Amino acid sequence: MDSGEKRLNELGYKQELRREMTLFKTLAISVSTVTLFTGITPLYGSSLRYAGPASLVWGWVVVSFFTWFVGIAMAEICSSFPTTGSLYFWAAHLAGPKWGPFASWCCAWLETIGLIAGIGTQAYAGSQTLQTIILLCTGTNKDGGYFAPRGVFFCMYMGLTIIWAILNTFALEVIAFLDIISIWWQVVGGLVIVIMLPLVALKTQSASYVFTHFETSPESTGISSKAYAVVLSVLVSQYSLYGYDAAAHLTEETKGADKNGPIAILSSIGIISIFGWAYILALTFSIQDPSYLYDVNNETAGAFVPGQILYDAFHGRYQNSTGAIVLLFVIWGSFFFGGLSITTSAARVVYALSRDKGIPFSSIWRRVHPKHKIPANAVWLCAGVCILLGLPILKVNVVFTAITSICTIGWVGGYAVPIFARMVMAENNFKPGPFYLGRASRPICLVAFLWICYTCSVFLLPTIYPLDWNTFNYAPIALAVGLALILLWWLLDARKWFKGPVRNIDVQNGKV
């Protein structure tokens, strides 16, 4: 019995999942969940358009700075509570016996909503990248290339979701192996893009343009306020820099989780902070004509700005798009691995919540495959809900904006509950793990909590004006309805029986 399993037993849980994940494997899954390309690529074009390159470039630095506060606060809690239930388990224990069940209930559902929507963001952006690859392989928008219509796009979205579910139904070794490929894919692929793209481009933008140029686009965004434009331009960074809690979801399957869990959380933030900024700089320096990127008559139909930047660079140098297609495939691979990892995390959260009877028909979703020791039913529940979430693709243009907002608010909002509970609890009630902040814990948690509140607020804002059915961000309505139902369920019924994490070990007597 290692230190992680011993601590798990002390918390009242028996070891049911297979504990074979090493630090490197856990880090691989965590980095794959945050991902280098999947946050930046789909929102890069809109963020650049809002306020120009300077706001985009320096916004990443600012967001990375505050993300470290959130990561450090979570690493301390993870070290003390190395359980698969992670955030909602932390909330229950940190909030105390009176408020613990309610804190756990809110955190669990926020996290569940965020993770399942996170699968949708990867499936949508992955389909968008694949759509561009197919377009360039069959010609271009100018040369009669095939641009997938809504129905085909939704089939791509659904296909990716189902493939991720199938892969997550196999043994954990398969997922761990694919995630090891993922981290090398992103590191090596990221280096290739960051180094090659500016070298291939016939011309590069000046440093003054990249680091100091500020320009709003009220004629296309409808936003004339410079402050508002800056806030929206930073959304790409806020959307990209989360997901590092994936290491916490796997702590019951990780060796020495009370030490390796925090290390994986902080290491993944460091890796993505550095590589993400380098990727943004590479794209921005390689822009050939800023105004041409959004032209609906350009080679990528104005639908995918990073794809147009790659096309302009390679076609300008070699008069063909082969290099752009290869690098787009590298980016698409990042979406594939990212979606696979988020499906793994989402299934673990649904499994943990079902184990504690917090989801309808919990007895179904908490079943573990007898051979592979995988919560297979939870995997397919997440996939099914994700597909339903993507149905508006068939009719509405702002689906990605809404899914992104729901994902970020749910996922990051779930971080706020245990961090706030840790901040206000009595210090003598906290049993620290190997990673302990001491007196620095409260100020770090305060900065982290305020940053999370700001992040959740800005994702509720409209992103395009004037408002109509094609530009309205329906995430606030979807979240309001969903959270209202969850709170109503709590008030009318769940508070009578939901007590938070349910122990399956009698710690005093050592009985299961």
Would you write up a description of this structure?
With 512 residues, this protein is mainly alpha-helical. The chain has one domain: Amino acid/polyamine transporter I, CATH 1.20.1740.10. Helix content is 67%, strand content 0%. The chain has helices spanning 3-10, 23-34, 40-51, 53-80, 86-94, 96-137, 150-169, 172-200, 207-212, 218-221, 226-233, 235-240, 246-249, 257-285, 305-318, 322-355, 362-365, 376-389, 399-424, 441-458, 475-492. The radius of gyration is 22 Å and the shape is globular. The two termini are 16 Å apart.
List keywords for this structure.
512 residues, Amino acid/polyamine transporter I, mainly alpha
CATH class: Mainly Alpha
What is the typical, i.e. mean, pLDDT?
Answer: 85
Query: From the structure provided, what is the oligomeric state, counting identical versus distinct chains?
Result: single chain
Spans of at least 5 consecutive residues whose pLDDT stays below 50 are 507-512
* Alpha-beta classification: mainly alpha
What integer value in Å does the Rg equal? 22 Å
User: How many DSSP E strands?
Assistant: 0
Order of helices and strands: HHHHHHHHHHHHHHHHHHHHH
Could you say what the CATH topology is called? Amino acid/polyamine transporter I
Percent of residues in helices comes to 55-70%
The largest pleated sheet is described as:
none
The percentage of residues in β strands lies in under 5%
| CATH 4th-level superfamily | Amino acid/polyamine transporter I
Q: How many separate helices?
A: 21
Distance between the termini: 16 Å
Sum up the overall morphology in one term: globular
Q: Based on the coordinates given, report the CATH architecture.
A: Up-down Bundle
Domain module tally:
1
